[in-house]
Design a protein that fits this description.
With 343 residues, this protein is an alpha/beta fold. The protein folds into 3 domains: 105 residues, Rossmann fold, CATH 3.40.50; 131 residues, D-amino Acid Aminotransferase, Chain A, domain 1; 58 residues, Dna Ligase, domain 1 (2-Layer Sandwich). It contains 13 helices and 17 strands.
């Protein structure tokens, strides 16, 4: 008899490919379940791939967690999967409340998630893991001792928005003008920039702390912070580095991704850790690392079949624009109605 598991994706936005991967995994595991997508607008593309789309308050609204808890109860949600950085800390802070409601959140503790989200602490974690550090400072420290080229990004940013490589003082002034001096001074971090090949590494870490899957993928083309073209690489250094990094991320559970760059003849230099699915994870899943199945199996207390290093090498992903069509019941309520949005 098929088992059941209803899954809710928060801040679902455009994660159509991820929902499709979960649907395929449910079918493969013979698990019956609904896929639900939550967002602040019916214009979320994922609503069209989900069994049900649900409008919820904004993440910064005090009613957000209450709304998710109500959905978890009324829709018998067994698993919540965050898809962006926006609500990671909130979900971590409230994961016990969801557990009491019979719902598992793919998240670590508030402390471990905070460790990943605090970009100024990234060098500390890398040092503990014995990995090459990337100098990372706040605006005041950078101003006191400038270094170029430098990668500037919002401390709590997501998807590469507001980020830029700055090569000199003139470019720094342009960044301050574009994004607001006060915003940059208070909310940006400055990382030493190392040119070279860039990689995102998708990792699955089981509840017992074991790393059971690692897939490095080289980023070939990036648009608006999200990878458009990439290829899987079987690289022993990257796989080993990701496993070592995982040992220093507290109780992070499920999928996380980390990013690094490597110049010819140099070691990999990590600069980002995200305790969630990366935007390009469908490539790793297509290569044989069925991470949705791992999560589903763990939530249902069933064995997983996975082994580090077992995936298809040199598999390329070429993303392209597609369109979904849906009736708009109230066009005036849609984001961008009064003024178009540019991302």
């Amino acid at each position: 008899m098929p088992r059941e598991l209803n899954i809710l994706f928060t801040c679902a936005g455009r994660r159509v490919a991820l929902l499709k991967c979960f649907r395929e995994s449910l079918e493969k595991l013979n698990v019956r379940g609904m896929l639900l997508a939550a967002d602040i607008t019916p214009a979320a593309s994922a609503f069209q791939a989900a069994d049900e789309g649900l409008i919820v308050p904004r993440v910064d609204d005090d009613r957000y967690i209450t709304a998710l808890l109500e959905i978890a109860g009324s829709r018998r949600i067994g698993l919540i999967v965050p898809t962006t950085d926006r609500d990671l800390m909130l979900l971590a802070r409230n994961r016990d409340r969801f557990a009491e409601a019979g719902c598992t959140v793919m998240i670590g503790s508030e402390r471990s998630v905070g460790l990943c989200r605090d970009k100024l602490r990234t060098p500390e974690v890398l040092a503990q893991a014995g990995l090459a550090e990337v100098r990372t400072v706040d605006y005041a420290a950078f101003l006191a001792e400038p270094f170029y080229p430098v990668f500037c990004k919002p401390a709590g940013g997501s998807g590469g928005r507001g980020s830029a490589v700055v090569g000199d003082e003139a470019q720094l002034q342009a960044l301050l003008t574009m994004h607001g001096r006060e915003n940059v001074e208070r909310g940006y971090v400055f990382q030493q920039y190392f040119p070279g090949r860039e990689y995102t590494i998708d990792v699955y870490r089981a509840r017992d702390g074991r790393v059971i899957s690692v897939v490095p993928r080289q980023r070939l083309e990036v648009r608006s912070g999200e990878v458009q073209q990439a290829v899987t690489v079987h690289d022993a250094e990257l796989i080993d580095s990701a496993r070592r990094l995982a040992d220093h991320l507290g109780d992070i559970w499920g999928v996380f991704c980390c990013q690094c760059r490597r110049a010819p003849g140099d070691v990999a230099r990590f600069f980002e850790v995200n305790p969630r699915f990366g935007g390009g994870v469908p490539l790793s899943i297509a290569a044989g690392a069925d991470m949705p199945s791992y999560i589903i199996s763990e939530v249902l207390d069933e064995p997983m079949e996975a082994e580090v290093g077992h995936f298809t090498e040199n598999l390329m992903m070429l993303r392209y624009d597609d369109a979904l069509f849906a009736p708009a019941e109230d066009p005036a309520s849609l984001p961008g109605f009064d003024e178009p949005m540019f991302r």
